[in-house]
Amino acid sequence: MRHFLADDDLSPAEQAEVLDLAAWLKDNPYAKQLLAPGKTIAVIFDKTSLRTRFSFATAAAHLGGTAITVGSAETQMGKGESIEDTAKVLSRYAEAIVWRTFAHSNLEAMAAAADVPVINSLSDDLHPCQILADLQTIKEHFDDLTSIKAVYLGDGSNNMANSYMLGFATAGLDITIIAPKDFQPEQKFVDRAINRAAQTGARVEVTDDITAAAGAHVVITDTWVSMGQEQDGKDRNTPFRPYQVDANLMDKASADAIFLHCLPAYRGNEVAAEVIDGPQSVVFDEAENRLHAQKALMVWLLEHKAKAAQ
Ligand code: CP
């Protein structure tokens, strides 16, 4: 059974297949009726969401089925039912399980017990569905991903930074995480990305030097306070101020650079309004592409499961 818990669960060739399918589904939104008539996917949230919730539900509808979307506290998991029992039960109803949770190990436990594909729709470690949408968006602007230099500025210790390293290295993009020394990625994620980059020719770098953004084709940032970090007692403002993406920073990037942000955004913190609301920003295409990329991912996983069963 194939699951999608981490960006590097897909090989470079498999990721390219999903991205090609996502681009095709953007033009042919109802062409794959894999959930018709009336099959379901189970979508569970332990954290808040706008984009993920609506994009998975819309994708399921486009595929001819329905997403049953619940907060985990509304399920018996909120009262202590085990992840394993939940996985086994949901596998009897749904074609796939999509879960936004805290500990990444929760997803691994769900996947180990499930008989249907499990999709990580954000954990404390990774947000791989977002990276598929980001790659689709970048491909809409640049033909050859392997010639692209991407930079991510801000909180380099969060799930987005980890997924950018793993997912972009898989796609062959050069990725530099530019973050204060106290907010850089755990070495285990850097090592994993470097291993993957060795297969694709990508470069993975981590620095606190903001001048590393010079010449970037893709400039990315994210909130300085990821979900679950609101009460962690750290100063999540002062250390990040020099890393704000503003017009001055964008001037240092390539003239044809695009700006990405997974949203929600906090103007005046991680990004200046002049950038996110300016001509280089593609954040709403990026948000739209969550729909197409996740639909493609579900089709890819379900078709893979069907082939494996033959
Ligand atoms: N980017 C993202 O995952 O958005 P939501 O938190 O609104 O789902």
Question: Could you explain how this protein is built, in words?
Answer:
It contains 10 helices and 9 strands. The mean pLDDT is 97. It has 2 domains: 131 residues, 3-Layer(aba) Sandwich (Rossmann fold); 158 residues, 3-Layer(aba) Sandwich (Rossmann fold). With 310 residues, it is of the alpha/beta class. The site of phosphoric acid mono(formamide)ester has 8 residues, from helix 2.
What's this model, at a glance?
The protein has 310 residues and is of the alpha/beta class.
Our count of domains comes out at 2
Number of helices: 10
Bound molecules: phosphoric acid mono(formamide)ester
Q: How much is the radius of gyration in Å? A: 19 Å
Strand content: 5-15%
Number of strands: 9
Helix-strand topology string: HEHEHEHEHEHEHEEHEHH
Calculate the mean pLDDT score and round it: 97
Strand order of the biggest β-sheet:
7-6-5-8-9
* CATH-defined superfamily of the largest domain: Aspartate/ornithine carbamoyltransferase
User: What's the CATH topology name of the largest domain?
Assistant: Rossmann fold
CATH architecture of the largest domain: 3-Layer(aba) Sandwich
* Cα end-to-end separation: 13 Å
Uncertain residue segments: none
Tell me about the largest β-sheet. 5 strands, parallel
Could you estimate the helical fraction of the residues in percent?
40-55%
